[in-house]
Sequence to fold (698 residues):
Amino acid sequence: MKRRYSRQVHVGDVAIGGDAPVSIQSMLNAKTVDVEGCLRQIDELKALGCDLIRLAVPDEDSAVAFGQIVRRSGLPLIADVHYSYKLAHLAIDNGAKKLRMNPGNMTDFSNIKPLAQRMADLGIPVRVGVNGGSLAEKFSGMNEVDALTESALECANAFEANGLKDIVIAIKHSDPMINLEANRKLASMCDYPLHIGVTEAGTLRTGLVKSAIGIGALLMEGIGDTVRVSLSTDIKEEVLAARRILSTLGLREEGVNVVACPTCARTQIDVEALASKIEMICADVRKPLKISVLGCPLNGIGEGKGSDIGIAGGKDKSVLLFDGKVYATVSNDVLLDEFLKLLKRKIDE
Amino acid sequence: MKRRYSRQVHVGDVAIGGDAPVSIQSMLNAKTVDVEGCLRQIDELKALGCDLIRLAVPDEDSAVAFGQIVRRSGLPLIADVHYSYKLAHLAIDNGAKKLRMNPGNMTDFSNIKPLAQRMADLGIPVRVGVNGGSLAEKFSGMNEVDALTESALECANAFEANGLKDIVIAIKHSDPMINLEANRKLASMCDYPLHIGVTEAGTLRTGLVKSAIGIGALLMEGIGDTVRVSLSTDIKEEVLAARRILSTLGLREEGVNVVACPTCARTQIDVEALASKIEMICADVRKPLKISVLGCPLNGIGEGKGSDIGIAGGKDKSVLLFDGKVYATVSNDVLLDEFLKLLKRKIDE
Fold:
């Protein structure tokens, strides 16, 4: 997978673009004025591997709270000020490491200069974030792919013409196919690093499918420097999903990959319960491990060959594999306990 | 999306390959000898849009039960006999419309002729199903992509050389990237219709991501004539996931597409609860509808423009959109009821 060339920008100590690894971001859904609630969410997301976090800054109270959160946050924070130059300056006063602005509701760029110059002086990048659902009125006649790219580039050009080179662009659409086409077009027209994601992807199940297809297809073409999975559910799921997408594509060798079989009439243990339990136990393991949980010896031992730890379930006893080789046959009563011993050994290795 | 050319085969009244729509299949996890349990699962899967169903036939009792299920099933059934010629013949005696055989555990093809000729006479296709976890020993030195394609083509050629032209091939691997590469290679080497899927994709969340990436990438390249999503969970999820993948790619315009926003500090209603409720209510609606559930007026009205029905949530009252236009502003207490009235109107249209 050859990655598209992009200029590199820095959000605090996190690089985006160039040869930086694809970073994971999410957005808090606690109200920004709820400082403790936000800090709790930040800690949770960080533990799961989130690199960057965005907060909405819709008013002055939120900007002040944002400042309090910045001082205690373990990650660089991005302030989403949508269209307001005033809030943009306030967010910078309060320690924002990056701003997100939405050209869809910025009326014009005539007052952009002082902001662009201040951001350039401080090394604070902007994310120009265009969204299919909030395109500026003047693009309404155009086809959506052109409208999204033109709106994004017009705003990015306005920042760059006024002295800011540290620009990330995000184009998002809720239809993964339009999203794909617009990002391909954008990627070919500039060297800005791209933040990718499918917007309003939906609830957990639908959102995972749309995001995996939409984000996955772009990354496979080498497009995308930072990702956000947008799900209408617990935001921890967004980070876990992003990790799964990157790990499926071999772009982030981190965390446990549980391979489990769909059950069939041959299945002799409760694969779903066991695999889910193991996934939960391993959610915050960052070491890259492959674990296979198969319901029958037929595929279980073959599949286990490529795994760090494998389970091939039998009726009363199951086979445990370690480093791809048969390790022991144990009673199903103690299977999980014996597995956990092997897991600990692998993590400590 | 231009589809790869493939010869067409028929499984009962369901066509696979050629210009046939990409069909959805799943595999029962009730024991085949549990006739009533299998029939219940078949009915459930059919209601959700499953076109073809596979059952394991690991022994003679299962073959007899398979026959009882065939007589009462509303869908054509595929018997998975893995390697046994004897069970293959028994399954045909009992009404199998397609057989799945796994070359990984067929010792040789010297006895294939009577089976191939009988299947050709009866118009029963075979699915040659190769699996990364159960490759034949003789391919063990080879790289996996070559091993998977060679094993599949060797077996398909044996059937074809003995008179059976109605052949579907499936190559499955638990690593979506190896799966992708092997299927690309296979697609370029033959005109057999391809059954695609990522094997042992895992539990719901991980499995959805791996399957959407692996299956989605192939379909986007025009490869794949029938799909199975393999998940270690309720098999209904497999059919729903397949539908979501096909619908995301515009390959199956069927069912309700719920666009919902990730919540942020701007959100004024419980988007997740509302969107999930709507998805559940609509799970068996087959009419293609786009429904948007957004948490704020800012994006809600814009996104709703492209929807059949839209909700743009506000603090106490929310905006309902119909055919993309603002329809009414209603109190949140009656929002779901008013939405359901619009849904009924849309379905009846």
